Amino acid sequence: MTTTAFGSAEPAVLVLEDGTRFEGAAYGKTGTTLGEVVFTTGMSGYQETLTDPSYAGQIVVMTAPHIGITGVNKTDMESDRIWVSGYVVRDPSRRVSNFRSEGTLDDNLVEDGVVGISGIDTRALTRHIRSAGSMRGGIFSGADYSADAEALVAQVNAGEQMAGLSLSATVSTTENYTLPATTERIGSIAVLDLGVKRATLGYLADQGFDVIVVPQNITPDDLLALKTDAFFFSNGPGDPAAASGQVEVLRAGLRAGLPYFGICFGNQLLGRALGFDTYKLPFGHRGINQPVLDKATGKVEITSQNHGFAVDLPIEGSHESPEGFGQVEVSHYSLNDNVVEGLRCLDIPAFSVQYHPESAAGPHDAHYLFARFREVVLAGKGESK
Q1: Per-residue DSSP letter, 66
Q2: How far is CA 97 from the centre of its chain?
């Protein structure tokens, strides 16, 4: 057993594909897990992060040192389960102190089978990833902790690479379901579930849409057969270059003249549907404090993000869509590294952003985008409200 400031736990080790090791204590379920090691910079919102399907396949490192103080509750769940492959924290809270709490994070991790590690220098780990880039890793505790160091590195390097990986089928619904509009109805919208969060669906319903959530493997004909007034592609995990089927569905909707709004993965897929490329970022953008410039207004938005890929376009000027959808411009970009954070089509009713306007968790700077899309749909109907 390992003695920590928070009690006794079995020893654990985090091993990166380059051989770097971080010794700590088991946190959550004891065992072995593999995934892409990434860091997120949010000071709060750990439950929303854990239950965001976009984090499937990833071992998430919290840069905030003290995690778990507010416990967990059903209201803040963004899906039915925890999706991260592994969890890395420095100091797990010794007790829960929040009137909304219905349980502890520790118990939640065990219940959902999430292998984690605590008590490591997460600052040093984050700085390493910022220099070397996100990489495969593994957390080993219990019997596997004592395995030969070289064998553990080999096991990590035998794991899947995020580049080229399709994860949509892992996180998507398998059948259609509908959420009715919660305010005056303006129409219906098809939401392609690539790992959608509950808050997103709620905000679309709040704008007057009957929300029809559809599986990731829907065909172009099935999408058009729904006869919705608009369509939406959600956030989600994986490499957009491995999502050719979803790109074809998106192109079919655009060619049919349906207004389109995409977020996160949906932004990358819009880029590919228009005929542009995407690429993998060195360590991605994750957290609830990412600064983005809205080129139309000159305003800076602080946004919630989780992405490891981006659209490959110059941030200035307009660009002709190679797929025949007219002119396209970058609407938003990151103030940290000039990465594309939004696209706006000038000749068709379509736009997207690379971040999370539903802000669960995070600031509400980008919430206006849902209302903007409502106006786009109404304008297409010759209405205005």
Answers
A1: E
A2: 28
Among this protein's residues, is 345 annotated catalytic? no
69, 98 Cβ separation under 8 angstroms: yes
Length of the chain: 385
Q: Which two tokens stand for residue 327?
A: 């002119």
The maximal CA–CA distance of the chain, rounded, in angstroms, is 68
Tell me how far apart the terminal alpha carbons of the chain are, to the nearest angstrom.
Answer: 64
Set 128, 264, 307, 329: catalytic member: 264
How many CA atoms are closer than 13 Å to the CA of 90, on its beta-carbon side?
13
Is-contact 191 204, C-beta < 8 A?
A: yes
Q: Using one digit for the tens of pLDDT, what is the confidence trace for 239-254? A: 999 999 999 999 999 9
Q: Which residues are annotated as a binding site for L-glutamine?
A: 54, 236, 238, 265, 268, 306, 308-309
Measured CA to CA, the distance from residue 149 to residue 15 in angstroms comes to 9
Q: What is the distance of C-alpha 261 from the center of its chain?
A: 16
- Predicted confidence (pLDDT) per residue in 350-384, tens digit: 999 999 898 777 777 778 899 999 999 999 887 65
Which pair of structure tokens corresponds to residue 194? Answer: 């690539």
Catalytic site residue 128? no
- Domains of the chain, each with CATH number or no CATH: 2-157 (3.50.30.20), 168-380 (3.40.50.880)
In terms of C-beta density within 10 A (0-12 exposed, 13-18 middle, 19 or more buried), how is residue 55 classed? buried
Nearest Cα neighbor of 270 from 330, 333, 214, 208 is 330
Q: Which pairs count as long-range contacts for 323-330, CB under 8 Å and 24+ apart, including other chains?
A: 323/251, 323/273, 323/274, 323/275, 325/254, 325/273, 325/274, 325/275, 325/350, 328/274, 328/276, 329/295, 330/295
Q: Of all helices (H) and strands (E), which one includes residue 44?
A: none
